[in-house]
Amino acid sequence: MAKNDNIDENVDLMDLLLDDDYDEPIILFDENQNKVAFEKVAVINLSGMLYFILSPLDYIDGIGEDEALVFKFVENKKGEQLLTVEESEEVAMKVFDEYYRLLGEME
Q1: Pairing mode, if any, of strands 49-56 and 35-46?
Q2: Which residues on adjacent β-strands are paired with residue 39?
Q3: Residue 105 φ/ψ, nearest 5 degrees
Q4: Which residues have a Cβ under 8 Å from the Cβ of 61 and sit 6 or more positions away?
Q5: Would the N or C end of the chain have less CB density within 10 A of its end CB?
Q6: 70: exposed, middle or buried (C-beta count within 10 Å: 0-12, 13-18, 19+)?
């Protein structure tokens, strides 16, 4: 599960990710419960699903310093919402394509 140490425990991670004014690092935990800081790049709505493009501020093996990851919320067996990396490369590429399309519209 993801958590941000810089904020009140009662603040929901989804609320932080959707807040356009929140620009503090997002602190997530990896599979070994190590903290990893991310910068929010974009929130993308694609086919009715929200995706979050996050760029790691900490070193992650196999991820370049100019790269980002696509995340989404999924529900676990207990009904909790967890932020996870999108595993489908095809979906991740569609999210990045939509991000670049939106950037182009802003220019």
Answers
A1: antiparallel
A2: 55
A3: -70, -25
A4: none
A5: C
A6: buried
Instruction: Enter the DSSP assignment of 91.
Output: H
Q: What's the gap between Cα 13 and its chain centre?
A: 10
Domain residue extents for the chain: 13-106
Sheet holding 35-46, edge to edge: 26-29, 35-46, 49-56, 69-75, 81-85
Please state the pTM of the whole predicted model.
0.85
Q: In the chain, which ranges are E strands?
A: 26-29, 35-46, 49-56, 69-75, 81-85
* Cα-based torsion angle of the residue sequence 104, 91, 84, 59 in order, rounded to the nearest 10 degrees: -60
- 54-75 pLDDT, tens digit per residue, is 999 988 888 988 899 999 999 8
Farthest-apart Cα atoms in the chain, separation: 44
